[in-house]
Amino acid sequence: MFKRLGFLFNADFCIGCKACEVACKNENQTASAVMWRKVQDLSEEATISISCNHCDSPECFRVCPEKAFSKRQDGIVQINTELCSGCQLCLTACPFSAPQFNLETRRVSKCTMCAERQDNGLPPACIEACTTSALRIVDLNQFKDPAASLTLPDYPFTQTTKPSIVFYPVKPKQRYFLK
User: Fold this and answer.
1) Under 8 Å CB-to-CB from 27, ≥6 apart: which residues?
2) Which residue of 40, 58, 147, 159 is 20 to 30 Å from 96, comparing CA positions?
3) Burial class (CB in 10 A: 0-12, 13-18, 19+), 114
């Protein structure tokens, strides 16, 4: 059976430090306006770190007229930027805004889940940089945890794409009052 690599995110552990975002930028040397990984506010008390979800049924793959997208046996969705014509159909098709248009090259790029690093036995740069272990990589074919969820409030989820990400839901913060 093939692997289906995906991200596991725990919003309760994320401190919003953006180390994952910076590590991604440094590792991939993307243009200044291109952000493959983004840390955003999920609520007043929680943040989320998101990138391409390497969907099981990616819309980018489906709509690309140049057939620039491919999927590895481990589930990582790749783009061959040399085949990309810059039409940007994938940008509008992706419910997660993962593909990024590079104004300098006039082509699209996206998170690679650091496939090269993983092929060499290293974790993705974003995972390695996360000091709280809020972000991890798991094999979704093996990962079984009833506490994990396929979505979070206000996070786009679509049965169509089957994103390769699971979440530990945000736990309500306990409030303590002094008497």
Assistant:
1) 114, 117, 125
2) 147
3) buried
Beta-carbon contacts of 81 under 8 Å, excluding residues fewer than 6 positions away, are 68, 105, 107, 108, 109
Which amino acid is present at 102? N
Q: What's the start-to-end Cα distance of the chain, in Å? A: 58
Residue identified by tokens 């391409």 is 52
Q: Give the DSSP H or E segment for 78.
A: strand 77-79
Give the span between the Cα atoms of 81 and 58, in whole angstroms: 17
- Specify whether the CB–CB gap between 168 and 49 falls below 8 A: no
pTM to 2 decimal places:
0.90
Read off the tokens for 60: 């980018």
Residue-wise pLDDT tens for the chain (179 aa)?
Answer: 588 999 999 999 999 999 999 999 999 999 999 999 999 988 777 889 999 999 999 999 999 999 999 999 999 999 999 999 999 999 999 999 999 999 999 999 999 999 999 999 999 999 999 999 999 999 999 999 988 888 777 777 677 889 999 998 777 665 545 55
Residues 6+ apart with CB under 8 A from 146: none
Instruction: Name the DSSP letter for residue 174.
Output: P
